[in-house]
Description:
With 144 residues, the chain is mainly β. It has one helix at 2-19, and strands spanning 35-43, 48-52, 55-59, 63-68, 77-81, 99-101, 107-109, 118-126, 134-136, 139-143. It has one domain (35-143): Immunoglobulin-like. It starts with a helix and ends with a strand. Residues 1-19 form the signal peptide.
Amino acid sequence: xxxxxxxxxxxxxxxxxxxxxxxxxxxxxxxxxxxxxxxxxxxxxxxxxxxxxxxxxxxxxxxxxxxxxxxxxxxxxxxxxxxxxxxxxxxxxxxxxxxxxxxxxxxxxxxxxxxxxxxxxxxxxxxxxxxxxxxxxxxxxxxx
Length: 144
């Protein structure tokens, strides 16, 4: 009799263990997404700029933030896909095709297209008072 109770107790405990999901199983189906920050420097004096990193490798679904460095002297910036040839729009991995930001206000690209893959070039342009903009064109590479 005691042996039957021990076996039944063990079976009951095992059944309860399977009935309760482990804490780490809650995210089992969730896709892990990362966020990345590109810091751009745009200088009105030289009318150009640079990015750090200058080429970013990301995964499908990742978010990219673009922020101005403290060394920048532009009042705001716009990031757009670089045209392919002339005025034809360039490919872009995000649904939002124009990102805007400024000092203390970073731009966010968080709406990646589900089929985004490959090499994407973009233009970063900053507004300079009384003259042409500061601009340059770094790359984003989406890898699966």
